[in-house]
Amino acid sequence: MDTAEAMAEIVGRRRPRSEALRGVGVTNLFYEASTRTRVSFEVAAKHLSADVVNVTAGGSSVEKGESLLDTMRTLEALGARVLVIRHATSGAPYLVAREFGGSVINAGDGRHAHPTQALLDLYTLRRHLPGASLLGRKIVILGDVLHSRVARSNLWTLTAAGADVWICGPATLLRGFDAWAAAGVGGSRRFTVTSDIATALRDADAVMALRIQQERMAAGLLPSLHEYAAAFALTAERLALAAGGCLVLHPGPMNEGVEIAPDVARGPRSLVTEQVRNGVPIRMAILSLVTSVE
Amino acid sequence: MSVGAPSPAGVVGRSADLELSDAWLVDPASGREGGGEIVVRDGIVESLRWLDGGAGREDGIVVAPGFIDLHAHLRDPGNEAAETVASGLAAAAHGGFTTVCAMPNTTPPIDHAAMVAAMRAAAESSGSPVRLLPFGTATAGRAGERLAALGELAAAGAAGFSDDGAPIQDGELFRNALAYAGMLGLPLIDHPEDGTLTVGAEAHDGLVATVLGLRGCPAAAEANAVARDLALLAEVAAEVPGARLHLTHLSTAASLDHVRRAKAAGLPVTCDVTPHHLALSDEWLAGARRWAWQALDDDGAARDPWRDAALVAAPYDSALRVNPPLRSATDAAACLAALADGTIDAIATDHAPHTEVDKAVEFGLARPGIAGLETALGVLLEAVDTGKVTLRRVVEALTTGPARVLGPAGVGLGGLIEGAPAELVVFDRSARWTVESSSLHTRGHGSPLLGRSLPGRVMLTIAQGRVAFEDPESA
Question: If you ran DSSP here, which 8-state letter would residue B378 be given?
Fold first, then answer.
């Protein structure tokens, strides 16, 4: 977080540029469509003067006919020292990290993790909570937790920061999380699981709404987007249950009118744009830290 | 150490000779276990003497009937890079197995008589004395739409029928397969899986899958299928006296409870479990490497590997992707208990070798399967060391148990019989060996046990009176 603060200072300059990664090959290997994360990594790497290459692969590596490991070896041979990988399969970065000579940064893998998103969420929350502390703060993650790597990474990150984390959504999208809550994150850090949105939001200090995808209806997990919105959308009315000044976050992209009402998404408590902005110093910090370790 | 290195040229297939005066003999067929001596000359068991107060010790050199594997994938024809009949039989011999039942999901599948003949011919020409018993498919092309030519397959020597990894979902067709196989006197072997619950499944539906973001395969998927199978079996068995159902690689406590009740009710059902479902659990996917029985708390619940700081390896090792998935430590304990109490009839390896191309990929894209023929004995001896199951019970489940499941094809298998061609394995109970690619005969890539030391080094395997494997160090 301290490194990110220093990076934010660089980003704030009229000509944001550091020489920290000059000559370092950073390759963004994205097997899934992504706008904000990919661009954010690219901007972060450029601010640090790295040599950035973007690779987007349609479909899985298998469909492409080249294995993920072969693609990695190719990119390594072409000078990649840092590989930023986004992949639809949980755990894919571990496969790459096993054989890659440089550093691997997980830019989101399947349902498993999106660590840089969770770190930028933490950074954003710290900037707005008194004393820059999440200790004892009630933070609600709302929506499709089951499929969300953002939710999982935030469970690790926010509980580590001492927050009182609640997850809330329809029962079908919380499957398995009761057992995790009982065991605790990392075997000890408890959180609360509920489908009762009023209880979840009461006195909350921050709410993070998650994207609801159309596929969930086809999979029989939800009756309709309309019903979801009626029961779980983050609206101004529901937000009134939370603590005064409750912060609103969303990892994007947003379905306004589904999981979040437009007036809330762009309201005075919304940090959605700032989250995007904060992604850059966080990723600069991560890039500079992993390369300085090498 | 050259354990498992290829046997010296010319050894395999040679008529076997053996003379042990201080061995520990385990013979489930006669219900005996104890010190004794055994002499094999020119492939025939010349003498077998039980010596009360002899020098043989349970933790010394053990002689047991050759093991029978009810469930192995030899990949031949169609995927010879993963395994061939010859390499599969060599792996079997190295694991102490003298009889291997080959699952019919080859390419093309073993769904017509000529394929059975071809499999038997391949075994013959491999030079290995290990007996290969091909299973035929239950439905044509394993498509689950109409019966395969079961009668012709049986006439050609199929030992049973199974669609294994593509289990028959259609209840009516399953019932007919059971009845028709029963009429032929052969077992129907089902891989019980309710496919509507396992679309895209990557791991056991539990805490580990939730944390790792893997799509869950619920225990209910197996229990559902087992319950359906047993309900149909109850009806079919009332009409077709020969109907027999064998449920393979059961992995959950709930399924085993169903089987226990069905057996108590007298239904003609048998089942097997794999060594990996007994000894490994889903926490291995997160990076734990302790045995399943070490992952239980005092109440028998699975411990949290994160709380225990038990994660010692990288997560998502695709060598651990297997179907059914590695279950909770509680399920593994239920499997071990069911083995001990006899609910489980046999231990089968579900030996499922794959190439590096199919395994060195993202976890969720890796082909499911563990190549287990050569590590089965070592893993099982680790279980014996817990005291929760006896050596004799394990040997039973590797010999007379599967022989009974096979019925006609198993007659005469699984015993130490004086005057008969030797069919046995000799292993050193306390000699440990390290599982390494170079020490394995399978072509399969990436055992999850690589690097691990296991007890019970196999010194000699004799099948049909001939040497199938001989450890060069103990020759």
Answer: H
Alpha-carbon span B326 to B349, nearest angstrom:
14
Q: What global pTM score does this model have? A: 0.96
Residue B341 CA, distance from chain mean position: 18
Q: How far apart are CA B222 and CA B198, in angstroms?
A: 10
Give the span between the Cα atoms of A109 and A86, in whole angstroms.
6
Q: 3-state DSSP call for residue B438?
A: helix
Please state, in angstroms and rounded to a whole number, the distance separating the CA atoms of residues B381 and B378. 5
Radius of gyration of chain A (CA): 19
Residue B385 known to be catalytic? no
Question: Residue B5 — pLDDT band, cuts 50, 70, 90?
Answer: very low
**Residue located via tokens 């699975």:** B302
The DSSP bridge pattern shows strands B245-247 and B188-190 to be parallel
Measured in degrees and rounded to the nearest 5, phi and psi for residue A56 equal -115, 130
Average pLDDT of the segment spanning B452-471: 97
How many other β-carbons are positioned within 10 Å of the β-carbon of residue A293? 7
Q: With pLDDT > 90 as the criterion, what percentage of chain B qualifies?
A: 93
| CATH class of domain segment(s) B66-414 | alpha beta
> What are A53-67's pLDDT values in tens digits?
999 876 445 456 789
Contact criterion met (CB < 8 Å) for B214 and A179 = no
The DSSP bridge pattern shows strands B18-27 and B32-41 to be: antiparallel
Measured between beta carbons, which residues in chain B are less than 8 angstroms from residue A159? Answer: none
Q: Does the distance separating the beta carbons of A187 and B308 come in below 8 Å? A: yes
How far, in Å, CA of A225 to CA of A184, rounded? 31
Who wins on pLDDT, B4 or A50? A50
**Domains of chain A by start residue, with CATH:** 2-110+276-293 (3.40.50.1370), 115-260 (3.40.50.1370)
pLDDT at B439 over 70: yes
Q: What is the pLDDT of residues A236-277, one digit of tens each?
A: 999 999 999 999 999 999 999 999 999 999 999 999 999 999
Cα–Cα distance for residue pair A56/A173, rounded to 1 Å = 30
C-alpha B331: how far from chain center: 18
Candidate from A91, A111, A187 with C-beta closest to B363: A91
pLDDT at A63: 59
Cβ of residue B206 closer than 8 Å to a chain A Cβ: yes
CA-CA distance, B342 to B425, in Å (whole number)? 23
Q: Which among A67, A111, A186 has the least Cβ separation from residue B361?
A: A67
pLDDT of the residue at B473:
80
SS3 B13: coil
Of A177, A186, A180, the closest CA to residue A146 belongs to: A177
Contact A247/A134 with Cβ under 8 angstroms?
no
Residues B24/B61, Cβ–Cβ less than 8 Å:
yes
Strand-strand pairing, B203-204 and A247-249: unpaired
Residues of B in contact with A186 (CB under 8 A): 306-307
Full 3-state SS string of chain A: CHHHHHHHHHHCCCCCCCCCCCCCEEEEEECCCCCHHHHHHHHHHHHCCCEEEEEECCCCHHHHCCCHHHHHHHHHHCCCCEEEEEECCCCHHHHHHHHCCCEEEEEEECCCECHHHHHHHHHHHHHHCHHHCCCCCEEEEECCCCCCHHHHHHHHHHHHCCCEEEEECCHHHCCCHHHHHHHCECCCECCEEECCHHHHHCCCCEEEECCCCCHHHHCCCCCCHHHHHHHHCECHHHHCCCCCCCEEECCCCCCECCCECHHHHCCCCECHHHHHHHHHHHHHHHHHHHHHHC
Q: Do A90 and B202 touch (CB under 8 A)?
A: yes
Polymer length of chain B: 475
The 10 Å Cβ neighbour count of residue A112 is 25
Instruction: Measure in Å the smallest separation between the Cα of A158 and chain B Cα atoms.
Output: 15
